Amino acid sequence: MSEKQTNNNYYSTIEKSAVAEFKDRGSRFIAFAFPISDVNDFKEKMAAIKKEHPKATHHCFAYRLGLDGMSYRVSDAGEPSGTAGRPILGQIDSKQLTNVLIIVVRYFGGTLLGVPGLINAYKSSAAMALQITPSVQKPVLANYRLHFSYMQMNDVMRIIKHFECVMYKQDLQLFCHIEIGVPRIRLQEVLTMLNDIQSLEVEQG
């Protein structure tokens, strides 16, 4: 299988959060790395960190979301432009990760670090946080909605379990509706088997 095919079917992220601290001339830089799935996740994590560290001088961050690499945001949060958010994002990108947020909280120590010192501090603290949480490869999922009668439940669930599909929503009554994520690398097999189940409706979504 070519590298390009593999990259289309898997992406790298982190599964567990991590905290690391970097010190320079009295300033403390505490980096928090989080796995996130959307912007709301980011807002919740940011609010929690600000609540936990209300007296910090700066709350800088960077995140990258999604599989196309186009959804990202950086913030220097009052530090000189380009000295915090970009170096943090650089560490996420150097490991080719996505769906990752890093917030670096700074407590000023009284000595100005200058632009090179700040870049090094934010880069180093972000790198340290990513070093202690392992990156993982996850399958890229294609989303589908399934509609079927309750009598077909066992057949449907067997396929979902066998191919390690992710279940997002389920409404299981006399007539059932399920939303699933199918690993793209197994998509054709899954669709073939689902379409063999009589009167089951498969809808892309």
Describe this structure in words.
This protein is an alpha+beta fold. The chain has 2 domains: 3-137, 2-Layer Sandwich (Ribosomal Protein S5, domain 2); 140-204, ACT domain (Alpha-Beta Plaits), CATH 3.30.70. Helix content is 33%, strand content 37%. The protein contains 6 helices and 11 strands. It has helices at residues 3-9, 39-52, 85-94, 114-131, 153-162, 187-195, and strands at 10-14, 18-24, 27-35, 58-65, 71-75, 100-107, 135-139, 141-149, 166-171, 175-183, 201-204. The strands form 3 sheets. It has a 5-stranded antiparallel sheet, sandwiched between helices. Helix 3 packs parallel to helix 4. The longest helix is centred in the middle third of the chain and has 18 residues, at 114-131. The protein is elongated.
What is the secondary structure topology, with strand pairs?
Elements: H1 3-9, E1 10-14, E2 18-24, E3 27-35, H2 39-52, E4 58-65, E5 71-75, H3 85-94, E6 100-107, H4 114-131, E7 135-139, E8 141-149, H5 153-162, E9 166-171, E10 175-183, H6 187-195, E11 201-204
Antiparallel strand pairs: 1-7, 2-3, 3-6, 4-5, 4-6, 8-10, 8-11, 9-10
Helix pairs in contact: 3-4
- Counted by DSSP, the helix tally is 6
Range of helix content? 25-40%
> Terminal Cα separation, in Å?
27 Å
- Beta-strand percentage? 35-45%
CATH structural fold name of the largest domain: Ribosomal Protein S5, domain 2
Q: What would you say the CATH architecture of the largest domain is?
A: 2-Layer Sandwich
Poorly predicted ranges: 1-6
Using the CA coordinates, give the radius of gyration. Answer: 22 Å
SSE order in H/E notation? HEEEHEEHEHEEHEEHE
Structural class: alpha+beta
Quantity of strands, as a count:
11
Overall pLDDT metric: 94
| CATH class identity of the largest domain | Alpha Beta
Give the neighbour order of strands across the main sheet.
Answer: 2-3-6-4-5
User: How does the major sheet shape up?
Assistant: 5 strands, antiparallel
Shape by Cα distribution: elongated
How many discrete structural domains? 2
